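Aim 2, interim progress. The first record below pairs a target sequence with its structure tokens.
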Amino acid sequence: MIVVAGSSSTDLAQEIAENLQCDFIKADTQKFPDGECYSRVNALTLNDDVIIVQNTYPDENLIEMLLIEDAVRGLGAKSVTLVIPYFGYARQDKIFKLGEPESAKVISKCLAMGCDRVVTIDIHKEDTLKHFGLPYKDLKAAEAIAEYFRDKNIDIVFAPDIGAKARARSVGERLGVPYDYLEKIRISGTDVRIKPVNLDCTGKNILIVDDMISTGGTIVTATRQLKEAGAKSVMVACTHGIFVNNTLDRLEGSNLDAVLSANTIASKVSKISVAKIIARSLKEW
């Protein structure tokens, strides 16, 4: 195997290569003066199975992925596996208004033209990957999150809503602690209460887990109200830390005791590595 890193995922790709004990190449990606993308894989030949690690978010990373796909094919790759840590456009998986595109399907079909299989991490809906028409795996970051917090004295794992309860269960069971989800109750047009559905958080060290954090509004409100209800500490961990605009600064300036994310998107808080999970899956394929 040979791991080729795009510019969005260099550190993660290198860590995957180290776990696989295989060759690693960082694609040379630059911008032309007019803003168009230029990518080159510096090798004479790639007569091997190639793993490309690159996000498809934001848009410029999607273009880079498409170019790298073509480059490794041109260098003779035996097979091409895409590892897409964060799959852009995955949340646009249906048509809500007449005239809209089904964006997740469009992106999948474009990427499928240059690969043989695909790996994602906690994609919004796994069914999206069926649009590739190729073998796929969606891996879960719960194992890595639980491992990171194993020695952090967590008492309860919460999901921010019922839709994420399965993720809280997976992390909680791995840590050997109870899990629950938070319920949002609208008191008035401006007042919202967020509280645990079943468990008492008094004096407890709380971990909130989610697939992604974009604006973080619910997390900030939930943390304040959990602390008011007696929680000893509140930490949050997500798979994809998108953190639009100044969200990360706002989270770090809130009542949260820690903000962590997996390294699917590089940031100063992406300290939870999913490299071992990805490498193990690639070995098993």
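The second target in this work package is listed in the same format:
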Amino acid sequence: MASNANKIIKGLDNLYPDAHCELNHSSHFELLIAVMLSAQTTDERVNMVTPNLFNKYHGAKELAKANVNEVEEIIKSIGLAKSKARNIIKTSQILSDMCDGEVPNNREFLESLPGVGRKTCNVVLSNCFDEPAFAVDTHVSRVSKRLRIADKEDDVRQIEEKLMTYFPKKKWGKLHHQFIFFGRYKCKAKAPECLDCPFTKICDKAS
């Protein structure tokens, strides 16, 4: 296991040394909202709507007072707009009332917010506060299973636990982004680019 883990770390460092969060944001609050909006859609689509959203509502205190129909109209192109609009407004209200509009470094509190699950919380904690976390999205899930770190039937929490056991804690934050880049741009769900992949010997799909 340790040998394969080191091979994966080295291979991803060579492929994506500068992997990073591709959701555009200028504050912890904007990242939280962007990640909430990214559920079941792409970062690219989220980045198309957040400039208008954040230009109209500057921070949690303004978004807390927003009209849900106006917010829904701004984000309607990303899907699930009705529920997402309600959740980001409710979350903004809670942050305004309890945290003066700031996003706290507190997992239990963050996961209690409307529309914030473990994956969203992990992304925020890792990117905003450098907390060791390994968020599991569709890309991370697919890559983990293909590289035989996780089993095909594992759910996202089981995958997260296995990733945290498999790799050193200090590597989790960077690897999260590298797994996403690898899954998004090379180890794609359909037509993965296997020809020059450094992981063919350990990949479930290539064997």
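Residues 41 and 128 are 22 Å apart (CA to CA). This observation will shape the mutagenesis plan for the next reporting period.
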